[in-house]
Amino acid sequence: IEQRIRNKAFLDKIISSEAASLLIKDGMTVGLSGFTRSGDAKVVPLALADRVQKSGEKLKINLFTGASIGDEVDGVLAEAGLIHKRLPFQNERKMRNKINAGEMLFIDQHLSHTAEQLRNGFLPPVDVAILEIVAITEDGQIIPSTSVGNSSIFAALASQIILELNVAQPLGLEGLHDIYEPGMRGQRQPIALTSVDQRIGTPYIKIDPDKVAAVVVTEKSDSTSAIKAPDEETEVMAGHLIEFFEHEVKKGRLPRSLAPLQSGIGSVANAVLHGFLKSDCTDLEVYSEVLQDAVFDLMDAGKVKFASACSITLSPERAADVIPNIDKYRDRILLRPQEISNHPEIIRRLGLICINTAIECDIYGNVNSTHVMGSNMMNGIGGSGDFARNALLGVFVTKSTAKDGKISSIVPFASHVDHTEHDVDLIVTEQGLADLRGLAPRERAKVVINNCAHPLYKDALLDYYNSAVKRGGHTPHLLEEALAWHAKYLQTGSMK
Ligand code: 0RQ
């Protein structure tokens, strides 16, 4: 413990998770560390749920995080009915069901926005921040673990801080972080980050030691991610994208090292990134929010030379290998606050290739990444909007059908729009790739249908488009039929 708590004053603050949970009262807003299941505060929220369930006490909190946290914590808190409002992202079945049943509120927010909204008082103030750390320095600063997420802004603004010192997270994580606070509008300078591997901040989060109300020692590991391995279809999608990049290199529009890559979460995004293993691309750089398995595979294969993100989220097998041996990657990784990993200024300056996932795309290029059948929340927009709008190339990937072909992921009209046609440069399915750059809506529709739609649905989409064109318009539609495919699925269980 002395190795990890280097400022002796903090030793007196060590208490149990149960005792720390008593600091959380009804109506409070709680900010938890954690981004895509990694580096999340784990034991105090679970102790809170346990306490409330046993005592029958009436308690509801607002829960703010970086992004998703471990299934266990979000699932337990949701099931116990402890959450009034959650933001900015979640990825848990029980919580999703509560949100869709209207039993808890959820704000689906661009992940770079939360810090700015808190700083400006647009959201309720954070009463308690619960932050996972690996160490406290001699001068009382904290070292985060496998993610930074929103921890630095929570620490700066919260009235009280509870630290979860996780001894299962290796001390080797120290030195991987780069914490930069842009400050308040009016006093801000340009963010001086001009290359992926550049440090602009401190390796620790600065805190006011007087705000630390408790230190809880834990050894609970991160939940690992449940990424499905690449399958035949995702490999084909990766192939389309690699072929496109090779063409761009040949045309002289991109160098062989391409441009820094961002990739969203999920099995499809991970599999597509995996596809670079088979490409001729070298000296790749990653400027993303999450580092999934594929990035470490690409580093091991010598394809990726540097990766910057705000969290590391791995499968159980990869986590067991990478996290204890994190020293091996020390010179090739940086973890930043999500406000910086997802900052529009930097995304545009570095000129990123951003690969994110769609639930459905419409024929004109609008993308729905969040809502099934227009109404039911899946996970959230996450960082996909931060990246897509400001990207050099905004790429969206999805299989052309879902639910055994009963749903077409290419539809006449997106049932919810997260990414407008203006933010979408490429759509990729296992059927092919639609390059929408420089195309007007009437050109786009034909390319999306012909290149990306599944043969089961292609003719029906062309019929829709041709009938709409007869009616006219810049972006032709038959409004009375635009959502008929979704309505049919809801009525019959199939869009066919
Ligand atoms: O359902 O879980 O019941 O089998 O969606 O789909 O094909 O396994 O793909 O794991 O990559 O997830 C968009 C949801 C894709 C995810 C989404 C159903 C499908 C399946 C999962 P089952 P797959 P993935 C980074 C940036 C958020 C935005 C983002 C996501 C389940 O990647 O949430 O990128 N992205 N954020 O059956 C109905 C359709 C469907 C559909 C797929 N058209 N209609 N259901 N599914 N298409 C993240 C952060 O910022 C933290």
Automatic annotation (TrEMBL):
Statement: the UniProt record of this protein carries the keyword Hydrolase: yes
Domain Acetyl-CoA hydrolase/transferase N-terminal, residue spans: 8-216
Ranges of residues in domain Acetyl-CoA hydrolase/transferase C-terminal: 325-464
Residues bound to CoA: 264-268, 359, 379, 383, 403
Active site: 289
Any one Gene Ontology molecular-function term assigned to this protein's record: acetate CoA-transferase activity
One of the protein's GO biological processes: acetate metabolic process
Keywords: Hydrolase
UniProt signal peptide: none
Record PANTHER family: ACETYL-COA HYDROLASE
Family: Belongs to the acetyl-CoA hydrolase/transferase family.
NCBIfam families per record: YgfH_subfam
Stated name of the protein: Acetyl-CoA hydrolase
